[in-house]
């Protein structure tokens, strides 16, 4: 029997081999009601080789593979994509970035994943149309020049032909100059590092609240076992998605719409409580950013970096459940959930786009800059 299969998983996820030789993964860190894409690969002489035909997806609620082309797959794609009212050639659907990231990680290659793809598509389309127009212009003016016996038409065609050729020479000259300066200026791609997404940081409240449990005080879809520690934190944190409404004064109270009112600090306190933590100032009913980052357990951040899904703060690797943020009139706190990702609850008041997962910590660090870190005990 060969070695056990491996995968990029969170703590608590277990790979194994059945008695009949088939292999499996028990994944405990999946978000509920979520479709995941995957691809199998084999390592041959140190080289990773994708297994042909192994790209597929499954629903975390039922744990079974979704049949490609099935109604379930189409329903998920429609839910997580925007269909243009009037499509362009090879471009009629723009999927969500998270869906694209999952598909590309599974070995698929969707054409459009983000704004860079859209910009590049239309730039190349425009360049192609201009090139075709120029060729037809030269052909037309050349035909008129060679076949017309009217002096004024010959002169006009000759002038237009010279202008088209001059335009072509200018374009070639510009290409040579730009390529000399930097080849990336003419490689046919444009990269927009970041786009403003409208995150509004409005601070956290200071009112006390009652922490919910798995039996009361929380929406039914929320996963709150009351134990499990760090191994369960990512699953617990993500189960709050689409079940939170932002409010600083009604912290941890169920609302008529079935969602729980939370702000940034009461959210992380509730998640830690659901994992069985009782940390003074962090997972208590008086939690706010001042209590989290003002205590003896917090560190001021001097260095922070991320690479290949690993985040290092003050030369120490960040672990699932660790908290990042700052204090002040608009203090804020987010939770690290592994793989370079963070999750948070943010304003404005009444916002229901919570709890939000950020696929990369880099954008947040660049635009806001974390000041403090609190490392959750194992």
Cα-to-Cα separation, first versus last residue:
34 Å
Describe the global form: elongated
Structural class: alpha+beta
Q: Percent range for helical residues?
A: 25-40%
The oligomerization state is single chain
**Rg from Cα:** 28 Å
Find the count of extended strands (DSSP E, 2+ residues). 21
Strand order of the largest sheet: 13-21-17-18-19-20
Task: Point out poorly predicted stretches.
Answer: 1-5, 7-11, 193-197
Main pleated-sheet profile: 6 strands, antiparallel
Description:
This protein is an alpha+beta fold and 378 residues long. The protein contains eight helices and 21 strands. Helix 3 packs antiparallel against helix 4. It starts with 13 loop residues before the first strand and ends with a strand. Residues 1-5, 7-11 and 193-197 have low confidence and may be disordered.
Characteristic terms for this protein:
378 residues, 3-stranded antiparallel sheet, disordered N terminus, 6-stranded antiparallel sheet, 21% strand, alpha+beta, elongated
Outline the fold blueprint.
Layout: E1 14-17, E2 23-26, E3 35-38, E4 41-44, E5 47-50, E6 56-59, E7 65-66, H1 71-79, E8 81-88, E9 91-95, H2 97-105, H3 115-147, H4 151-181, H5 230-238, E10 244-246, E11 253-254, E12 260-262, H6 264-274, H7 289-293, E13 298-300, E14 304-307, E15 310-313, E16 316-317, E17 323-326, E18 332-338, E19 341-344, E20 356-358, H8 362-367, E21 372-374
Parallel strand pairs: 10-12
Antiparallel strand pairs: 1-2, 3-6, 4-5, 6-7, 8-9, 11-12, 13-21, 14-15, 15-16, 17-18, 17-21, 18-19, 19-20
